[in-house]
Write a structure and sequence with these properties.
Blueprint (H helix, E strand, L loop, with lengths): L3 E8 L5 H10 L6 E8 L1 H4 L10 E5 L5 H7 L4 E3 L12 E3 L1 H13 L5 E5 L4 H16 L4 E3 L11 H13 L4 E5 L2 H14 L7 E6 L3 H4 L7 E4 L2 H16 L11 E3 L4 E3 L12 H13 L7 H5 L6 H11 L4 H19 L4 H7 L5 H12 L3 H8 L7
Helix pairs in contact: 1-9, 4-5, 6-7, 7-10, 13-16, 14-15
């Protein structure tokens, strides 16, 4: 059987690419395929790949790049990007409504009475919001919706202020579902900067289960993983039918994949007992104060009626670290957020964080993050991402 050349166009920030490729290869027909991954935006500047027309293509790229790639491909195409309400190409997409339902079920299980949703305005976010709200209302609970879009690549002072005001006004304790992991991380950082405790007063879950957002964050972020493997398998099946002319592209319905969607529980939605009220209060104090000044464990203990041993022991069981480390994590997390999400000079960031000199902040950051602040900013400054 003749080998077929399949082009897989992906954004360079696409997570879980291995799962997607494994799903494609699991389709029996794919045994005769030779799959080439092409990274965007490299192809925007380098057109050499376009001169080798593939037999079929699978696209998981930003919507703004779609017309350019389509214009250069003369073969069947399957789309995996869920930004538009009515995809013009045969598409295999995650079931965003079900994603919202799964997020609601998890937060409802925490026993909180208040719920909210925050999105970035894209179509998939609106679908997730509808699924989340429907599941919450079904249990006769109210759901607050953020009226402004939390676009992590377009944050400004006005948007940050509006989001902080929204978080402060939410009745607590409150379970929040964010449309994406970056959106969830933004909410956590803003809660941290205003002294709102996560978990405790606010419980937050995101979507995509991206390791760089979920596992390297403090607290670690609970998140819903997308069904990349199942999407890859379904996309390969659809592409094979298109290449065999078993079905016309115009007759292909959008496939919405439910199988494989699951929530991965982490600390941001850790269920707390009544006995943990003192710990919640201590964490709220740490997250309100540690980012803007030097804070000692003794100051934290003065705000709660609990011994250092009991506080350290409870924190160790809940989050896996002591009170002193909690202060360090919040301080470093605040610095990383300011370095990565603002254009403030390092001198200004050091001053706002309570360091007497820039050198003192540089020494502190190097000691705890193993890298200079300027180097961290260069590597992690916020950019445009696709989800």
């Amino acid at each position: 059987m003749k080998e077929k050349r399949i082009a897989l166009y992906v954004d360079f920030l696409t997570w879980n690419l291995r799962e997607l490729v494994d799903g494609i290869r699991s389709e029996p027909h794919a045994s005769t395929w030779k799959v080439h991954a092409h990274w965007m935006p490299d192809l925007v500047c380098d057109h050499q790949y376009y001169y080798q027309q593939p037999d079929g293509a699978i696209l998981y790229i930003r919507p703004e790049w779609m017309p350019q790639v389509q214009a250069r491909l003369r073969c069947p195409i399957v789309n995996l990007t869920n930004h538009d309400q009515r995809p013009k190409l045969p598409s295999v997409l995650p079931d965003d409504h079900e994603i919202g339902v799964i997020g609601a079920r998890h937060l409802l299980g925490l026993g909180v009475s208040n719920f909210a949703f925050a999105g970035d305005g894209r179509y998939y976010a609106k679908c997730r919001q509808r699924g989340f709200s429907a599941a919450i209302h079904k249990k006769h609970r109210r759901c607050a919706i953020a009226t402004h879009e939390i676009m992590t690549d377009r944050l400004n002072a006005g948007l940050l202020s509006a989001t902080i005001r929204w978080l402060r006004e939410l009745p607590k304790p409150c379970g929040i579902m964010a449309a994406t992991d970056p959106c969830a991380l933004t909410l956590i950082r803003l809660c941290e900067s205003t002294g709102i405790c996560v978990p405790g007063e606010i419980f937050i879950a995101g979507v995509n289960n991206a390791p760089e957002y979920c596992e390297l964050n403090d607290p670690e972020l609970s998140s819903i993983s997308l069904p990349y493997w199942h999407m890859g398998k379904a996309a390969a099946n659809t592409l094979q039918r298109l290449m065999n002319k078993e079905v016309a592209a115009s007759r292909c319905n959008v496939q919405r994949i439910t199988q494989g969607i699951k929530l991965v529980k982490r600390h941001s939605t850790l269920k707390l007992g009544r006995a943990d009220n003192a710990v919640t209060k201590a964490l709220a104090f740490i997250r309100r104060e540690a980012g803007i000044r030097t804070l000692s464990v003794e100051e934290v203990l003065s705000t709660v009626d609990i011994s250092r041993f009991a506080l350290d022991n409870t924190l160790q069981k809940m989050l896996g670290y002591s009170t002193a480390e909690a202060i360090t994590r919040v301080r470093i997390g605040h610095l990383k957020y300011m370095l990565g999400n603002t254009k403030d000079s390092i001198k200004k960031i050091a001053s706002n964080a309570g360091f007497k000199t820039t050198e003192a902040m540089n020494h502190y950051f190097r000691r705890h993050a193993n890298v200079a602040p300027s180097a961290w900013r260069k590597k992690h400054a916020v950019g445009v991402r696709v989800y």
